[in-house]
Amino acid sequence: MRLLFILLLVPSVFFAQQDHTHRLSRVLNFPDIPGYKTLKTDLHQHTVFSDGSVWPDIRVMEALMDGLDVISLTEHLEYQPHQADIPHPDRNRSYKIALEEAKDHDLIIIHGAEVTRKMPPGHNNAVFITDANLLMIKDSLKVFEEANRQGGFVFWNHPHWEAQRKDGVARLEPFHRELIAKKLLHGIEVINDLTISDEALQIALDHNLTIMGTSDVHGLVDWRYGIQKGGHRPITLVFATERKSEAVREALFNKQTVAFFGQTLVGRQNFLNPLLQHSINFKEAAYQGDTHIATLKIINDTGLDFTLLNKSKYTFHNASDLLIVKTGETILQVKTLEKLSEIALQFEVLNGLYAPGKHPTLTWQIKID
């Protein structure tokens, strides 16, 4: 039965296990930026050890197939609907199984758990903890204090969840403000599952919280996000100095993240802008004969399409001011009116967000042969 389930999951899982690489078509690529490695993480997932539908090793296999660098299995501490079938007094069990499955793979497993309470404080993840059992405390404030005592990074899950916010609007309660003031709450999910919250983004900016994006997946990643149809799970891009657990933790506390889902990248400009700048590359710029039309090749290796609005002084010969840069190569013809050795192209990146309704505007300096 186990073998049949894995076969149904997707045949290529076996290749992920055999060669331990991430070279699969479903993998999204994001460039490193100066001084940092760009790591793909999903720090909010569930298995049968809370209210999920899969064994922890499947989460490891899915992560390898998606080319992730870091994951955490954050089981509900207080909500255990499968307990009659899978009794487990040790709330660390899911983590231990995932750690064992990942030991021969190039994947970092972070110890985590989900504190599951009514609003406030709602649901919150604590990752980089040492013992989930010690978080089984009735007093909500003491739970956050214990998570921090263990060195945990704590973030607020789906603050716009309609089950706790009927209008879908994230807002702070006095208890959240107390947690922030005491430095017990460090991040907030702006993207969760299939949803994105402008209000959560504004809370992150106003209160200096780390911007997070997670799948919160309970079933199969492939089914939930339509992987075979070109979909992908939400993730947090973490910009770390090296590919190690402690470097990821340090980066999260330093708010070095960009959340990603659909075709949208959300983050502070000091990391969002260089990520975009290095994701879109202009190559082989040259004039066509004696014309004043420069032909440029745009290279996009990320796996997502960029929507660019022209803000430069030049117009295009083969495109409007609204330019879609798809994965791979895009040819752009620029009317420069005279032959130049260098031009500056400026675009507003419409699928980048650094604040609600605000998109970064970037300039590329391009030399022409």
Keywords:
369 residues, alpha+beta, TIM Barrel, Immunoglobulin-like, twelve-stranded mixed beta sheet, four-stranded antiparallel beta sheet, 10 helices, elongated
Write a compact overview of the structure shown.
By secondary structure, the protein is an alpha+beta fold. The protein is built from 10 helices and 20 strands. The chain has 2 domains: 2-262, TIM Barrel; 280-367, Sandwich (Immunoglobulin-like), CATH 2.60.40.
List the helices and strands and how they pair.
Elements: H1 2-9, H2 13-19, E1 37-42, H3 56-65, E2 70-73, H4 93-102, E3 108-116, E4 123-127, H5 140-149, E5 153-156, H6 174-181, E6 187-192, E7 195-196, H7 198-206, E8 210-214, H8 221-225, E9 235-240, H9 245-253, E10 257-261, E11 264-267, H10 269-279, E12 280-287, E13 293-300, E14 306-310, E15 315-316, E16 322-325, E17 328-335, E18 342-349, E19 352-353, E20 361-367
Parallel strand pairs: 1-2, 2-3, 5-6, 6-8, 11-19
Antiparallel strand pairs: 1-9, 3-4, 4-5, 6-7, 9-10, 10-11, 12-13, 13-17, 14-16, 14-18, 15-17, 18-20
Structural notes for this entry:
This protein is an alpha+beta fold and about 375 residues long. It has 2 domains: about 1-260, TIM Barrel (Alpha-Beta Barrel), CATH 3.20.20.140; about 280-365, Immunoglobulin-like. The chain is about 25% helix and about 30% strand. The chain contains 10 helices and 20 strands. The protein has helices at about 1-10, 15-20, 55-65, 95-100, 140-150, 175-180, 200-205, 220-225, 245-255, 270-280, and strands spanning about 35-40, 70-75, 110-115, 125, 155, 185-190, 195, 210-215, 235-240, 255-260, 265, 280-285, 295-300, 305-310, 315, 320-325, 330-335, 340-350, 350-355, 360-365. Strands 1, 2, 3, 4, 5, 6, 7, 8, 9, 10, 11 and 19 form a 12-stranded mixed β-sheet that branches. Strands 12-13-17-15 form a 4-stranded antiparallel β-sheet. A hairpin with a 5-residue loop joins strand 12 (about 280-285) and strand 13. The chain is elongated and about 75 Å long. The chain starts with a helix and ends with a strand. Mean pLDDT is about 95; it is low at about 1-25.
